[in-house]
Amino acid sequence: MTRLILQRLFFSAARLGVIFLLLMLLIEFAFCGLGGSDQHIWQAGSYTPFGSEVEGMDGFRLLFSERSAASLRVLVIAISCVLLTGYGWGFLAARLRRYRIGIILRLPFSVFSAIPGFWFVILIAIYSYSIWQRPGFADEVIVTSGPDLLGWWHAFIVALPLIAAGSASLMTSVFNAISSEMSRPYTHGLFVGGYNSESIFYDHVVKGAGISLIRALDRPLPLLFGLLVGIEFAFRYRGMGSLLVESVNAANYGGIILGSMWLIGLISIINWLRDCAVHLQTGEVTNG
Predict the structure, then answer these.
(1) Same domain, 26 and 120
(2) Is 103 exposed, middle or buried, given 0-12, 13-18 or 19+ CB atoms closer than 10 A?
(3) 140 — phi, psi (to 5°)?
(4) Are 96 and 170 in the same domain?
(5) What is the pLDDT of residue 288?
(6) Is 89 exposed, middle or buried (0-12, 13-18, 19+ CB in 10 A)?
(7) pLDDT of residue 72
(8) Residue 279 placed within a domain
């Protein structure tokens, strides 16, 4: 058990190191190779301060903690809702697939995350931010006492597009994984043998699709984290995603590296947990 966890941790750390090197090369190529900048990534003088809001290491730590906390609020809301909706409705859609209800369950999320009107609203938000400095939460009332319900409310608004797109993606993955398992010949044999449909589904199909269901955990992550960057910037939400976009616009190497590695690090942690769960499940299946 411990050996497995450490082994997967080593591979995750090595993969993170490779991604960091590729990120450095990409920054160097984009700003110096294509942009013609004379500030190379390996030069200490290329790392300018994070704007007027940061003064010294204390200001940097404050910036990192505030923006990390803001983005984590969004991700906690979004990932929790995506997992609950994606797995819950995906199971229901697969269980009732004979009635074609899966399409009905996925439709609201798919439509909300794909219709031109949804993305038109996002483009309007970006335009109004660039021209009128609106909409956004940067100038709202700051909560100084009691629970920061206003901050959670802002995080929930930012998380809504992530929830819609991520739920549709995970629901499809879960539905396909269970439907594929239900199509195996043994399910027909169990039905002929006198097993009722509920026993076949919950005791055999779900158990047989366990590894595929665990592997589906991180399927929505690229979509969620990609949307996080754009949505935070569009609504002037002061998180790590907006810090990344602001740093790219300002050619701030430190901000680009910090924002990118924060997002990649979270994905790596989730992938590591997923890999450990898959290997544990595989071991249980093999032993069984």
Answers:
(1) no
(2) exposed
(3) -75, 170
(4) yes
(5) 46
(6) buried
(7) 92
(8) no
Low-confidence ranges of the chain (pLDDT < 50): 52, 116, 138, 284-288
Question: What's the CA gap between 98 and 15, in Å, rounded?
Answer: 43
Q: What is the pLDDT of residue 287?
A: 45
224 and 159 in one domain? yes
If we measure between CA atoms, which residue out of 189, 1, 173, 162 comes closest to residue 82?
162
Task: Tell whether 52 is covered by a domain.
Answer: no
Whether residue 97 contacts residue 171, with contact meaning beta carbons closer than 8 Å, is answered with no
What pLDDT sits at residue 15? 81
Read off the pLDDT of residues 137-164 as tens digits, 9 standing for 90 and up: 545 555 566 666 677 777 888 888 888 8
Q: Which residue in the block uniquely carries the two structure tokens 């009691």? A: 146
Q: What is the pLDDT of residue 286?
A: 42
Same-domain pairing of 215 and 249: yes
For residue 276, how many C-alpha atoms fall within 13 Å in the half-sphere facing its CB?
18
**Is 24 inside any structural domain?**
yes
**What pLDDT is recorded for position 120?**
59
User: What are the CA-CA distances from residue 272 to residues 15, 75, 173, 276 (Å)?
Assistant: 11, 18, 20, 6
Structural domain boundaries, residue 216: 64-255
Digit-coded pLDDT (tens) for 173-184: 888 888 888 888
The two tokens of residue 154 are 């802002």
Q: Check whether residue 14 and residue 124 sit in a common domain.
A: no
Q: Is residue 275 part of a domain?
A: no
Only one residue has tokens 């007027």, namely 52
Number of domains in the chain: 2
Q: Locate 243 and state its tokens.
A: 């810090």
Structure tokens at 39: 């500030």
Residue 219 has which token pair?
A: 């399927």
